[in-house]
Design brief:
The protein is α+β, with helices and mostly antiparallel strands and about 180 residues long. It is about 30% helix and about 25% strand. The chain has a four-stranded antiparallel β-sheet with strand order 7-8-9-10. A three-stranded antiparallel β-sheet has the order 1-2-3, with no helix packed on it. Strands 4-5-6 form a three-stranded antiparallel β-sheet, with helices on one face.
Protein backbone atom coordinates (compact mmCIF):
# COMPACT_ATOMS: atom_id res chain seq x y z
CA UNK A 1 0.00 0.00 0.00
CA UNK A 2 2.76 2.48 0.95
CA UNK A 3 4.71 1.72 -2.23
CA UNK A 4 1.55 2.34 -4.30
CA UNK A 5 1.02 5.64 -2.55
CA UNK A 6 4.63 6.67 -3.17
CA UNK A 7 4.41 5.58 -6.79
CA UNK A 8 1.48 7.98 -7.30
CA UNK A 9 3.28 10.91 -5.68
CA UNK A 10 5.64 13.17 -7.60
CA UNK A 11 8.39 15.19 -5.95
CA UNK A 12 10.05 17.99 -7.87
CA UNK A 13 12.90 19.97 -6.34
CA UNK A 14 12.68 23.51 -7.72
CA UNK A 15 15.12 26.06 -6.26
CA UNK A 16 14.77 24.94 -2.66
CA UNK A 17 10.98 24.66 -2.91
CA UNK A 18 9.58 21.16 -2.86
CA UNK A 19 6.37 20.46 -4.74
CA UNK A 20 4.51 17.31 -3.77
CA UNK A 21 1.57 16.11 -5.76
CA UNK A 22 -0.57 13.13 -6.56
CA UNK A 23 -1.20 13.09 -10.33
CA UNK A 24 -4.52 11.27 -9.82
CA UNK A 25 -5.86 13.89 -7.43
CA UNK A 26 -4.49 16.76 -9.55
CA UNK A 27 -3.48 18.54 -6.36
CA UNK A 28 -0.07 20.08 -5.66
CA UNK A 29 1.23 21.28 -2.31
CA UNK A 30 4.19 23.61 -2.05
CA UNK A 31 6.38 23.37 1.04
CA UNK A 32 9.32 25.69 1.71
CA UNK A 33 12.29 23.55 2.62
CA UNK A 34 13.79 26.01 5.12
CA UNK A 35 14.58 23.39 7.74
CA UNK A 36 16.59 21.42 5.17
CA UNK A 37 19.11 24.27 4.76
CA UNK A 38 21.96 25.06 7.08
CA UNK A 39 21.71 28.28 9.14
CA UNK A 40 24.39 29.79 6.88
CA UNK A 41 22.37 28.93 3.75
CA UNK A 42 19.22 30.38 5.28
CA UNK A 43 20.95 33.68 6.09
CA UNK A 44 22.48 33.92 2.63
CA UNK A 45 19.13 33.13 0.97
CA UNK A 46 17.28 35.69 3.09
CA UNK A 47 19.79 38.54 2.73
CA UNK A 48 21.02 37.99 -0.84
CA UNK A 49 19.11 40.99 -2.22
CA UNK A 50 19.82 43.34 0.69
CA UNK A 51 22.48 46.01 1.03
CA UNK A 52 25.10 44.56 3.36
CA UNK A 53 27.96 46.35 5.14
CA UNK A 54 30.48 43.57 4.58
CA UNK A 55 31.92 40.91 6.86
CA UNK A 56 32.94 41.85 10.39
CA UNK A 57 36.30 40.55 11.58
CA UNK A 58 36.37 37.98 14.39
CA UNK A 59 38.34 40.34 16.65
CA UNK A 60 35.67 43.05 16.13
CA UNK A 61 32.92 40.58 17.07
CA UNK A 62 34.82 39.58 20.23
CA UNK A 63 35.43 43.23 21.11
CA UNK A 64 31.70 44.00 20.73
CA UNK A 65 30.79 41.08 23.01
CA UNK A 66 33.33 42.32 25.55
CA UNK A 67 31.97 45.88 25.45
CA UNK A 68 28.42 44.60 25.95
CA UNK A 69 29.51 41.97 28.53
CA UNK A 70 27.61 39.13 26.87
CA UNK A 71 27.89 36.46 24.17
CA UNK A 72 26.03 36.84 20.90
CA UNK A 73 24.00 33.81 19.78
CA UNK A 74 25.91 31.68 17.22
CA UNK A 75 23.55 32.62 14.36
CA UNK A 76 23.99 36.34 15.06
CA UNK A 77 27.78 35.88 15.15
CA UNK A 78 27.46 34.13 11.79
CA UNK A 79 25.40 37.05 10.44
CA UNK A 80 28.09 39.50 11.59
CA UNK A 81 30.87 37.40 10.03
CA UNK A 82 29.01 37.13 6.71
CA UNK A 83 27.26 40.50 6.37
CA UNK A 84 28.31 42.91 9.14
CA UNK A 85 24.93 44.69 9.01
CA UNK A 86 22.04 44.67 6.53
CA UNK A 87 19.40 46.91 5.05
CA UNK A 88 16.45 45.63 3.09
CA UNK A 89 13.13 46.88 1.83
CA UNK A 90 11.75 48.63 4.92
CA UNK A 91 14.02 47.08 7.55
CA UNK A 92 17.54 47.23 8.94
CA UNK A 93 19.48 44.72 11.02
CA UNK A 94 22.02 46.37 13.29
CA UNK A 95 25.51 44.97 13.28
CA UNK A 96 29.19 45.82 13.11
CA UNK A 97 30.14 48.11 10.28
CA UNK A 98 33.22 49.51 8.67
CA UNK A 99 34.22 52.95 9.91
CA UNK A 100 33.40 55.62 7.29
CA UNK A 101 36.49 57.00 5.59
CA UNK A 102 35.23 60.57 5.98
CA UNK A 103 34.87 61.48 9.67
CA UNK A 104 32.09 63.95 8.86
CA UNK A 105 29.91 61.46 6.99
CA UNK A 106 26.92 59.81 8.62
CA UNK A 107 27.25 56.03 8.97
CA UNK A 108 24.96 54.08 6.67
CA UNK A 109 24.48 51.27 9.18
CA UNK A 110 23.37 51.14 12.82
CA UNK A 111 26.03 49.83 15.15
CA UNK A 112 24.78 47.15 17.56
CA UNK A 113 27.15 48.24 20.34
CA UNK A 114 26.31 51.95 20.34
CA UNK A 115 22.55 51.38 19.84
CA UNK A 116 22.46 48.83 22.67
CA UNK A 117 24.54 50.95 25.07
CA UNK A 118 22.34 53.99 24.36
CA UNK A 119 19.33 52.04 25.67
CA UNK A 120 20.94 50.63 28.79
CA UNK A 121 19.97 50.31 31.59
CA UNK A 122 16.34 51.45 31.44
CA UNK A 123 14.90 50.77 27.98
CA UNK A 124 16.16 47.33 27.14
CA UNK A 125 15.27 43.74 28.06
CA UNK A 126 18.00 42.30 30.29
CA UNK A 127 20.91 40.56 28.53
CA UNK A 128 19.73 41.56 25.08
CA UNK A 129 20.94 43.64 22.15
CA UNK A 130 19.01 45.95 19.86
CA UNK A 131 18.99 44.46 16.36
CA UNK A 132 16.24 46.43 14.62
CA UNK A 133 13.51 49.03 14.99
CA UNK A 134 10.28 49.56 13.06
CA UNK A 135 10.83 53.32 12.88
CA UNK A 136 7.86 54.05 15.13
CA UNK A 137 7.21 52.38 18.46
CA UNK A 138 8.64 48.85 18.33
CA UNK A 139 12.25 47.87 18.91
CA UNK A 140 13.46 44.33 18.23
CA UNK A 141 15.93 42.82 20.63
CA UNK A 142 17.83 39.54 20.64
CA UNK A 143 18.33 37.63 23.88
CA UNK A 144 21.98 36.86 24.63
CA UNK A 145 23.79 34.99 27.36
CA UNK A 146 26.46 36.10 29.80
CA UNK A 147 27.73 32.53 30.29
CA UNK A 148 26.78 30.25 27.35
CA UNK A 149 28.33 30.83 23.90
CA UNK A 150 25.89 28.32 22.33
CA UNK A 151 22.70 29.99 23.61
CA UNK A 152 20.30 30.78 20.72
CA UNK A 153 18.27 33.64 22.10
CA UNK A 154 14.81 34.61 20.92
CA UNK A 155 13.55 37.90 19.55
CA UNK A 156 11.72 40.26 21.90
CA UNK A 157 9.46 43.06 20.66
CA UNK A 158 9.74 46.02 22.99
CA UNK A 159 7.53 49.07 22.94
CA UNK A 160 4.46 50.90 24.16
CA UNK A 161 1.91 48.70 22.32
CA UNK A 162 3.08 45.82 24.52
CA UNK A 163 3.59 47.95 27.63
CA UNK A 164 7.15 46.63 27.71
CA UNK A 165 8.33 43.29 26.37
CA UNK A 166 6.60 40.77 24.11
CA UNK A 167 8.57 37.55 23.51
CA UNK A 168 7.96 36.54 19.87
CA UNK A 169 9.45 33.06 20.15
CA UNK A 170 11.36 33.63 16.89
CA UNK A 171 15.04 32.82 16.56
CA UNK A 172 17.34 35.34 14.89
CA UNK A 173 17.18 33.49 11.56
CA UNK A 174 13.37 33.27 11.70
CA UNK A 175 13.26 37.03 12.36
CA UNK A 176 15.54 37.74 9.37
CA UNK A 177 13.41 35.51 7.15
CA UNK A 178 10.21 37.20 8.36
CA UNK A 179 11.65 40.60 7.42
CA UNK A 180 12.70 39.51 3.94
CA UNK A 181 9.70 37.39 2.91
CA UNK A 182 7.29 38.76 0.35
CA UNK A 183 3.91 39.64 1.91
Amino acid sequence: MVSNLLANTQTINLDKTLIFGNPLARTNYTVRAKNMNTPRDRLIDALATCMNAGPAREDAIEQAESQLQLFFPPTYRMFLALFGASMGNGFEIHGLCPVPEDEDSTPLWSDVVSSTLALRPDCLPENSIEISHDGCEIGYFLECSTTDREFEGRIIEWGSPHDGAFPTGMTFIEFVESQTEDP
